[in-house]
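Hey, quick one: can you model this chain's 3D structure?
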Amino acid sequence: MPAQDPAHPEHTEHPEEHPPRRDEGLADVLTAVGPRLRALRRQRGTTLAQLSEATGISLSTLSRLESGQRRPTLELLLPLAKAHRVALDELVGAPETGDPRIRPRPFVRHGSTYVPLTRSFGGVHAFKQVMPPVEGTPPEPELKVHEGYEWLYVLSGRIRLLLGEHDLVLTAGEVAEFDTRTPHAFFNAGPQPAECISLFGPQGERIHVRARPTTRSKDGKGKPR
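Sure thing. Here's the predicted structure for all 225 residues.
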C-alpha cells in the first residue's frame, strides 16, 4: 500500500465521514446569550426581581442564565424577549432576518481546503474543495469505498478521477457523478492548484437534473444526452 502524501490528498475519505465539530458554533452562540441578557436588562434599568415578576422565571434561574451557568432554552428566551420587547434573534445574536448569506468555516484535511456551502446537516452536502499543486510524481492513492453518491464539477485546474476500472482527467467545466460504493479516488493532476465543487449525498441522495444539455451528432444536429 503506497504511503499517503499529505500534499496529494486522497479525496475518497470524504469530509462528511469525519466532519468538523458541529457544536462549536452553537456553543459560541449560547455562551454569548448570558452577557447579552444582562446588558439588555441593565440598559433598560430593570432589576432581576422585576424581570422575574414579568416573565414568571425564578430569580435564581435568571441569575444563572446571565452568568452562563444555565443553558438558555426556547421556553426561557421567549418570555424574556417579550418582556424586553425585542426579537428572539436579538437575544441569541442570529444573523439579520432575510440575510441569505452563508458564513462558512473552511477547514483543511489531507492538505486540501474545504469550504462548506450548505448549512444543514441532512440531505446533500455541498463543498468547494481547493487542492494544492502537485510536486513531483504523486503516489497512486488507495481506492476507497463508502456509502453515498457524489457529483463533482471542476472549476479550475486538472483533477484525476480513479473510478473502478476508469482512469480519467477532468478539466475546468467537466462534471462527473458516481456511486461512492464504487472504488474511487480523485486528486490534483497538475502543477497548479485545482478547485472543484462537490455535492455529496451520504445516504445516496442524487442531484435532480431539471434540464439536460444537448450534444452534436455527426450530422450536426443536436440531440439530448
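One thing worth noting: The helical segments are 23-43, 48-55, 59-67, 74-84, 88-92.
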